[in-house]
Amino acid sequence: MVPMLKKERFRTFSVSSLSVQYGVTTISSDADAPNVVKVSKLAYNEEYTPDYGYKNDVAVVELATPIIFGPDAQPVKLAPAFNSTPENSPALLSGWGLPYSGGSVMNHLQKVDIMVYSDEDCERIHAQTGPTDRHYHICAGVPGGGKGQCNVGSLNLHLDFEELVNSL
User: Of 136, 143, 135, 139, whose CA–CA distance to 126 is shortest?
Assistant: First the structure.
């Protein structure tokens, strides 16, 4: 297992007001919104450091009831532990994050085709703007910037991955 994902490094907190909506392209907080499941447990890494490069920025969500898989809801394959990121390869980034720094969370599913950068390219690109650490980050975007995972709230990077954190 990846050292930063060890079960004993996770903390939980109250989730009474949290829920997950799945299998939709437009999210809604309406009482009758489709495919909404309550969260029964959320564990986050106690070593998460938002003030220094978002190290250990990971959480595990346990749902009160199972997701019903179908054409619009499928499990995502995650990378095996210690798998290297396939540099200079295309990836699809999708979710309801922020369209830009300081923007509002989007209601409609967004997607963008991006390129996974090598660790060396990432460190060069971010030399002036902030820390990046190849042990904690997957660096991706488009030439010239402005599209990527850096300014978002909840996005999913799809890289044809397998399983992760089975023992949590």
Answer: 139
